[in-house]
From TrEMBL:
All residue ranges annotated as the ABC transporter domain in the record: 12-267
Keywords carried by this UniProt record: ATP-binding, Cell membrane, Membrane, Nucleotide-binding, Transport
CDD domains from the UniProt entry: ABC_NikE_OppD_transporters
Family under the similarity heading: Belongs to the ABC transporter superfamily.
Protein name stated in the entry: ABC transporter ATP-binding protein
Source organism per UniProt: Porcincola intestinalis
Lineage: Bacteria, Bacillati, Bacillota, Clostridia, Lachnospirales
Amino acid sequence: MNQEQNDVVVSVRDLHVNFYNNNRCNKVLRGISFDLHKRKIMCIVGESGCGKSVTANSIMLLLPDLARIEKGSIDFYYRGKDIRIDQLKRKGKEMRQLRGAGMSMIFQDPMTALNPVFTVGSQINEALLYHGQAYNKKEATEKSIELLKDMGISLPEQRVREYPYQFSGGMSQRAMIAMAMSCRPKVLIADEPTTALDVTIQAQIFDLMLDLKNSNDTAILLITHDMGVVAELADDVAVMYMGNIVERGDARAVLTRPTHPYTKALLDSIPVLGRGKNQNLKPIKGSTPDPYNRPNGCQFAPRCSYCTEECASRMPDESWIEGGHMCRCFHSLPIRKEGIHD
Ligand SMILES: Nc1ncnc2c1ncn2[C@@H]1O[C@H](COP(=O)(O)OP(=O)(O)OP(=O)(O)O)[C@@H](O)[C@H]1O
């Protein structure tokens, strides 16, 4: 194994997840593969509904009952063991033990993680005590206060004694982030963690995530719509479209030399810091297909100006551009004759 492979903490291979709803099957994840590395941040980007949260929830085995992992594997390399997450029971003891110090998740909606009937402090204390980050209740309370303070919550001594309903949305979000980070997990999954927060607090939280990554070798999977955040924080980027990762690789390479027409279109449709004031933003033409009535081949084909007969008939395999830069397109640069960079 080379150094790069040694640093892999989570390895997802050919993952297929279906949702069964009203006798209909929605193939939400259609064979995605990627690795999360120690001390690295991987960002997943893509339009709403492409499967970003389902990817995150699959790793944590937090899928709803109507979802099923059909095929593929999720390996978690933890404490010298190779744990096949996809083969564990969702609510089983082994998975419960992994959540927290092994893997922790920051959800889009803080109310998913906070229990309304316990004080915020007692919930953070419990996580600290359960995962051995505090020896007794007194020490746990001191650490909880410290964590809330780190999250920019004023009067933390008072706030630890309050209930979630006494917190604003942004404060609940920060309390949940404190709880997720308190266990110093080896894998942190953050699904749009700072959408409800103002930019100063957002910057503080990202600093804390970077601290955790560097001091604890934590691998971070970050889902965000904010390309500024991606440009600043990501080591690697995966671009998703309708359940497939269409491009993946080193963040700088993907952002500055996109090879998939969808990545290029996505980057052209949003303002990017540093590109100057007169950015000629172009919305992506067309809309995402109905998941129950998908095109046969490449899912992006109906919206793609490079579409050929081949694209409409089958999904291209992963092909390698350079290094670890992967693209699933029959017309990916540098194959495509006319450049799409201009
Ligand atoms: N609880 C559910 N019940 C039925 N279908 C679901 C459920 N959760 C997700 N899906 C299906 O999976 C698809 C992907 O959902 P997912 O939440 O992963 O999208 P996303 O990329 O995270 O979007 P967003 O950026 O809006 O959060 C959805 O379009 C939907 O078809």
